[in-house]
Amino acid sequence: MARAKHYQASTYKARTSVGYLVKRAQTAMVNGIEPAFAEHGFNLMQWIVLIYLRDGIALNAKDICAEFQYNSGALTRVIDQLEERGYIERRRSRNDRRSVELHLTDSGRELVKSLVPVVVDRLNQALSDFTRAEVSELTRLLNKLIAGSQSMASAGEAA
Amino acid sequence: MARAKHYQASTYKARTSVGYLVKRAQTAMVNGIEPAFAEHGFNLMQWIVLIYLRDGIALNAKDICAEFQYNSGALTRVIDQLEERGYIERRRSRNDRRSVELHLTDSGRELVKSLVPVVVDRLNQALSDFTRAEVSELTRLLNKLIAGSQSMASAGEAA
DNA sequence: CGGCATTAGCTGCCAAGGCAGACAATATCA
DNA sequence: TGATATTGTCTGCCTTGGCAGCTAATGCCG
């Protein structure tokens, strides 16, 4: 396939590559938000699980792994922690007894409600110099990049 | 300061947030490129060190840590691996004997030369549906997001 | 010069993530 | 139905990254 040559081997510099920039952006955002969770005794991954359950993105561990590209073994342990602390419950599914349904408890629901404004505020801070149009363009381009990177991954398998 | 409210607590959904998208993009890109390094017995961080030295972004461990937001203890071990395999050399600086200058060996330089085309090709694949204008806009917005996220982090400290 | 703070790098320890293997439940299909 | 494959979860093991503390070298005063 004839493909646009956005980068060329002869002129490639790490610091200008989209890969580098995405990595730096991700690190900077995590560093910005983690302290806020830490104040409440949480980390980012625990938050992800809670918000996924609240948003109904996932009902069980498998869905979270698929959506967030996370390892199922590691997730088991994150869920253990949240269950120990009483924020979520495991319930064996009746339909498929291999599967474990995850549910927010009342205290989990309250926790999410109290943390959402913190997260939203941090995001808005990070985007405070952006116009609305820029945010929506960034969102669009990131989605496109995700799609393209996934096809890159599968192309790699084939090779 | 009056700040644009790009997100609101009452309508916030994880999946549409820039934080989520950046994370997904980063994971997808890493998953796409790691196998290429693995074929040669490397991982991403080792590559970062090599390309930083080649590009002259860093001369010693401290610079790499600062530029890439990486932990100095962890970096020591990455450098150990690369030195053992003969791709880089440590040389005590004459000017400041606390500092250790890092240098690519000939074999390290060859390695980088052989891997750059692989990296460039994967990046172009990920961006194959992008126009040139889109790539440059994405680059601009990511740089802006990085700047904004860093200010978010320091605002967090103050609070 | 002598004392104190700072800097660069390294080590030990711990937590988190990836991977492979195990197990129970389910699906598939002859 | 019975045999085999697949699925969802969990466990053990290993690697990696973060953190705190250490040492050697330097800088900065007085």
UniProtKB/TrEMBL annotation, chains A, B:
Q: What UniProt keywords apply to this chain's record, in alphabetical order?
A: DNA-binding, Transcription, Transcription regulation
Q: Does the keyword Transcription apply?
A: yes
Source organism, top-level taxon: Bacteria
State the Gene3D superfamilies in the record.
Winged helix-like DNA-binding domain superfamily/Winged helix DNA-binding domain (1.10.10.10)
Q: Which Pfam families match?
A: MarR_2
Q: Which InterPro entries match?
A: HTH_MarR-typ (IPR000835), MarR/SlyA-like (IPR039422), Tscrpt_reg_MarR-type_CS (IPR023187), WH-like_DNA-bd_sf (IPR036388), WH_DNA-bd_sf (IPR036390)
MF terms per GO, please?
DNA binding; DNA-binding transcription factor activity
HTH marR-type domain residues are 15-147
> One GO biological process from the UniProt record?
response to stress
Protein name stated in the entry: MarR family transcriptional regulator
